[in-house]
């Protein structure tokens, strides 16, 4: 649970919350007295007064945010949905108007043939295009040495002007400053 240190001083691992691998020192009084649920006391001992109710801790709020988040459709998904709706409308009109044309031509069409035609004309296979588009984008990104986890990530990357990286230790392999830069082909 989240709380405030009432007595003691300890080294605490907050990497589960902040991602920072270096432990921090927390002590009673002052600005460094707060502790978050899910962190580990690495050395010494502290007495903590719990300041949150059950289900209202920092972790509970973060979990609620993630669970409540809904993914918005990408522009490609919206365009494909509109295209599918248009095709569906056209195919319904074609299937419905086929009966009067068949009657006019004195060609009987059974109900089973109408249902079969309607099922065949439903544009469900076009929905697979979105996955193909995403995979093609991921492949293009991979050729530029960029690993993506989804087609949405590739589509979103088209709007990026500035890239801010927070994991300095990962990028610099533990060094505090970058020593070499390797620009991609065609970049300065």
Would you mind describing this structure in some detail?
By secondary structure, the chain is of the alpha+beta class. The protein is built from seven helices and four strands; from the N terminus they run βαβββαααααα. Strands 1, 2, 3 and 4 form a four-stranded antiparallel β-sheet that branches. The longest helix has 30 residues, at 75-104. It is elongated and about 95 Å long. The two termini are 49 Å apart.
What's the short version?
By secondary structure, the chain is an alpha+beta fold.
Shape: elongated
* Unreliable residue stretches: none
Which H/E pattern describes the elements? EHEEEHHHHHH
Number of helices: 7
Rg calc: 29 Å
Question: Termini separation (Å)?
Answer: 49 Å
Compute the average pLDDT.
76
Q: Quick one: how many beta strands?
A: 4
- How much strand? 5-15%
Range of helix content: 40-55%
Main β-sheet description:
4 strands, antiparallel
Structural class: alpha+beta
Question: Topology of this structure?
Answer:
Layout: E1 3-13, H1 15-18, E2 24-27, E3 34-35, E4 40-50, H2 58-68, H3 75-104, H4 111-121, H5 128-143, H6 151-157, H7 168-171
Antiparallel strand pairs: 1-2, 1-3, 1-4
Helix pairs in contact: 3-4, 5-6
């Amino acid at each position: 649970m989240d709380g405030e240190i009432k007595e003691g001083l300890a080294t605490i691992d907050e990497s589960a919350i902040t991602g920072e691998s270096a432990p921090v020192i927390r002590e009673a009084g002052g600005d460094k007295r707060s502790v978050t649920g899910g962190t580990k006391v690495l050395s010494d001992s502290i007495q903590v007064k719990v300041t949150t109710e059950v289900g209202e801790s920092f972790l509970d709020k973060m979990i609620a945010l993630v669970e409540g988040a809904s993914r918005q459709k990408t522009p490609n998904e919206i365009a494909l949905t509109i295209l599918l709706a248009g095709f569906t409308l056209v195919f319904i009109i074609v299937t419905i108007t086929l009966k009067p044309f068949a009657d006019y031509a004195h060609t009987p069409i059974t109900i089973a043939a109408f249902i079969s035609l309607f099922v065949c004309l439903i544009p469900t296979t076009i929905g697979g295009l979105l996955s193909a588009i995403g995979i093609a984008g991921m492949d293009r990104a991979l050729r530029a040495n960029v690993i993506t986890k989804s087609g949405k990530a590739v589509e979103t990357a088209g709007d990026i002007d500035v890239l801010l990286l927070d994991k300095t230790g990962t990028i610099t392999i533990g060094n505090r400053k970058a020593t070499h830069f390797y620009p991609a082909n065609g970049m300065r």
